[in-house]
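Researcher: We're teaching a course module on how sequence relates to structure. For the next exercise, students receive a sequence and then see the predicted structure as tokens, so they can try to spot secondary structure elements on their own. Here is the exercise chain.
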Amino acid sequence: MNPLQAQFGTIDIYLFDQLLRGRITPGMTIFDAGFGGGRNLVYFLNEGYTVFGCDPDARAFQALQGRGDFRQEPVESNSFPDAAADVVVCSAVLHFARDDRHFRAMLAGAWRVLKPGGLFFCRLASTIGMESLVKPLGERRYWLPDGSERYLVDEALLMQITDEIGGALLDPIKTTVVQNQRAMTTWVMRKQ
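Model: And here is the predicted structure for the students to work with:
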């Protein structure tokens, strides 16, 4: 393993960008809403940040058990207290929503844990730049060219929700289009 990977793991490049900009600093508490295998947490755990999170998958929970307060539970009904985190990371999670209601519940569960003034970092699949390649299935669910089925957002929905929940964009919405496969959008907000 190279030294950078040992220090940072396989952190999302756009989350790494938030570190480089000084938006996430030592002493902040980090909540990972849907931590998976913990790929975005290696640096924070190595550097002594207070890190906690939830994921409904038992394998994800076992991978991080004993490394912090990690709970096997869904994002939408997590048991962490309100306003407990300075930073919420929700990477590659919300596009697994079953429908609009589930998406809103998952988002509310993650947003609730964020302190006022806190940073919300989200990466999720979208239709942005892939509009002609995705096939709608209803309830914002789409069949993607990569063969997967996902709940997809678009810019208009993200802007509407940002206003509704009392967020303020810290960066413009950014989308990476993976040629003929999928589009991943980065949504970074401050909680007002």
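Model: If you want an answer key for the exercise: The chain has a mean pLDDT of 96. The longest strand covers residues 114-125.
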